[in-house]
Design brief:
single chain; alpha/beta; Immunoglobulin-like; TIM Barrel; nine-stranded mixed beta sheet; eight-stranded parallel barrel; 19 strands; globular
Length: 503
């Protein structure tokens, strides 16, 4: 039995989990990108969106070598996001061609070898750091003038993306130390450019890719910031549980807590360097790395399409909260979205090519319904595969997110009966229930039942989309005289219960 103590608050609870990296940033201009973001806003599934500045779309040089600015595309993207109510984290990156130290150094991390819309990502450093600083200043100045300092100060700015990774920064560096030296100059220009306009705007870094291998890069960055009194308002880190190679070889399978050691090591380094209470933003996470990989490279990435990922997410946020992983926000990386040519191909995104919602998206919708107070609870030993996140809202209604799965998704767990006793309720409540599992809110199940059509008819699309959509069930009522509700849960199930006072 699970006992939820409805009048016993364990702690205040901040939603650190309903945040995303929207990739590619310039898909915000396109109908398919807006369709995804519209749905996220409509369902309240996302609070903060991380995007790139895409300086190459903004800054050019005139014939005299003076910087020219065209903010039209940038303003379109940010106007759109803010109109939908999203908060922003903006990564200052990448370099326009004229500012690149090496034009032969390009990022090829995609199936096409080019970025979205045929753009080139140069993985080099600036040929003039004073001009880099000026870009940061001009960009910040424009945002403050357009949106107001108080609004922009509610966002976050970070310096670059994965500067320790040769795919993104200084590809031909002779050593990691040389790459770090250039990044420190990059951060100094970033900090100086922004603070010349406003010191109220939160800025951070370094958003390393290979955090498990580059603890030294992280430590030396923090020491540089401390020694030189640079402004640093939050630490940005990236954290992935495993990768395609680990899945393929079986040496590192899926694991809800796969990234915990890495994160806590970074936290210890931050404390050691004098940043004990600084907010930590995991501005890129996923159960597995490699957004441009799909089931062709790793058949195991099919978890991105089915109920395993929704169970992973629900168990992860519960586990991270219980272990006090100090995330202020964590952002799932939605990348590879523009590379899809078929449905259910194993990319890391919320919707398939035909816009069927995936279970991971449905889990985001449910997790967004959790309240701001965590309630005390007890789970008996017979339910040790169940995670529970019971919460209360300011208006008094209760919502509890439960997941039933093996933490490493290896064991095929049997169907079980789960009694839930709501301790201390003093009135009658109407209960609403949402379920994600193999047979609920899971588009790929219906797709398989229909024979995996390569070219589904409009009728088939509607059937698959409907089956993949969350459904709300009026379960029953609970009251002081009847305070127990019984659930039946199958392997990799996620359930949200909402209790509203009966009128």
């Amino acid at each position: 039995m699970i006992r939820i103590f409805t009048n016993s608050k364990e702690k205040e609870l901040k939603n650190f989990w309903n945040h995303i990296v929207f990739h590619p940033t310039d898909a915000i201009e396109d109908d398919w990108g807006k369709r995804i973001l519209d749905k996220c806003a409509e369902d309240g599934a996302v609070k903060t969106v991380r995007i790139y500045t895409m300086f190459e779309d903004i800054f050019t040089l005139d014939e005299s070598g003076n910087i020219k600015c065209d903010f039209e595309l940038n303003d379109y993207r940010i106007d759109y996001l803010t109109s939908k109510g999203f908060n922003l984290l903006i990564a200052f990156t990448f370099l326009p061609e004229w500012l690149c130290a090496n034009l032969n150094s390009e990022n090829k991390y995609s199936r096409t070898g080019k970025r979205y819309k045929g753009k080139t990502l140069y993985n080099t450093f600036p040929n003039d750091y004073s001009k880099w600083q000026e870009l940061c200043r001009l960009y910040t100045e424009h945002l403050v003038k357009r949106y107001g300092e108080d609004t922009v100060a509610g966002w976050r700015f970070s310096c670059y993306n994965e500067p320790d990774h040769p795919g993104f920064f200084y590809n031909d560096a002779p050593s990691n130390e040389a790459r770090l030296a250039e990044y420190l100059k990059l951060y100094d220009g970033f900090e100086a450019g922004i603070t010349s306009i406003s010191r109220k705007i939160p800025i951070g870094g370094p958003a390393l890719a290979e955090s498990t291998e580059n603890f030294e890069f992280f430590r030396l960055f923090l020491e540089h910031v401390k020694k030189n009194n640079r402004k640093l308002d939050f630490l940005s880190i990236h954290s992935y549980g495993t990768g395609p190679q680990g899945i393929n070889t079986g040496l590192k399978p899926l694991d809800v807590n796969g990234a915990v050691h890495n994160t806590m090591t970074l936290v210890r380094i931050a404390k050691m360097c004098g940043f004990e209470n600084i907010p930590i933003v995991c501005d890129e996470w996923g159960a597995a790395t490699c957004g441009f990989y799909n089931i062709q490279e790793c058949p195991g990435l099919m978890f991105r399409e089915n109920e395993i990922y929704s169970a992973y997410f629900a168990k992860m946020i519960s586990s991270f909260d219980e272990m006090n992983i100090p995330y202020d926000e964590m952002m799932i990386c939605l990348s590879g979205q523009h590379e899809m040519t078929t449905d259910f191909s194993g990319y890391r995104n919320f919707f398939t090519l035909n816009f069927y919602p995936k279970p991971i998206y449905n889990a985001f919708v449910l997790a967004a319904k959790l309240g701001n107070e965590k309630l005390n609870f007890v789970v008996n030993n017979s339910h040790d595969h169940i995670s529970v996140m019971p919460t209360r809202h300011p208006d008094g209604h209760i919502s509890a997110l439960l997941a039933y799965a093996d933490n490493r998704f290896i064991i095929d767990l049997p169907e079980i009966e789960v009694p839930i006793k709501f301790m201390g309720i003093d009135k009658k409540y109407n209960v609403k229930k949402y379920v994600i599992d193999k047979d609920h809110a899971n588009a790929i199940t219906k797709y398989n039942e229909l024979g995996c059509p390569d070219n589904p008819t409009d009728e088939q699309k509607e059937i698959i989309r409907d089956f993949g959509t969350l459904k709300c069930e009026d379960a029953e009522t609970v009251s002081p005289d009847n305070d127990t509700l019984t659930l039946m849960m199958i392997n990799n199930a996620v359930v949200l219960l909402e209790l509203f006072p009966a009128e």
